[in-house]
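[Primary structure, fold]
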Amino acid sequence: MKTDTVFKKAFNRTLDFMVQGEIEDPLPSENELRRRLGVSRTTIRKVLKELVCRDIVSTARSRAEDRQIQPADYFPDVETMSRNLHVEQQFMEWMLRGDTRPGTLINELDLARQFGVATSGIREFLIRFSRFGLLEKRPNSGWIFEGFTEDFALELFEIRMMFELRSARLFARQPDQSPLWAKLDALKRAHLDLLSEIEHRFHDFSSLDNRFHRLVNEASPNRFIDDFYDIITFIFHYHYQWNKRDEKQRNHAALVEHLAYIDALLSHDLSRVEVAAGAHLSSAKETLLRSLVPAAA
């Protein structure tokens, strides 16, 4: 499946550099751009061509007069997603929509067909998650989902709290020209749209929840946090929704908490951010622990 994610990510990063004043006018040489972005000359040439097509720069590589970079100039996040992240999100949605429970058998070939990706991509994803003890390999491309314990969930929550509060503080300190603010504004609108249609769209909260918390963590890029966040996503953004009790009410409450959290970030007030983030994460913890209790027959 050809996605051009490398080019699109490089293009978005170039826009970020321009917004933040880290790329001068006129633009530097192809070699210098290659060094900054860590991509091939072919990719850089595609980026430059796209900048010209969108009238952001001229053929002379100078910034177009009075042309401000807008959020709409960026490729959407879904189009810059790596193969691993694409598989992860497809898998999470499959688990959620299928109401998957501990003991569920998982077949690599079936998932590869459903997700439109190579079997190797599915296998890599499942192997990566198996190290946490949530999946067990079976013969003939099969796996079994084991579920997890309360102790596992509590240990994971402790790590999530440390990671996200650190990221939330750094997010609030971002300069006004940071592209993170435009992304946060767009996510706020998406939250308000979902809130207005919560009666029939409450299942859509899981993907919005994932997008929001990943955006918060963009303020503190760290390869180890990014890797560990895969498992955090799996547990906190999906597992508790397998318990269908009061799902609409829970998602409505979480949406309201997200909006308070977003407004706190937009205020740049660190104390307000810590209160809003702490309140939302505490609610997420309680919801997760309740989900581990089987529903009464």
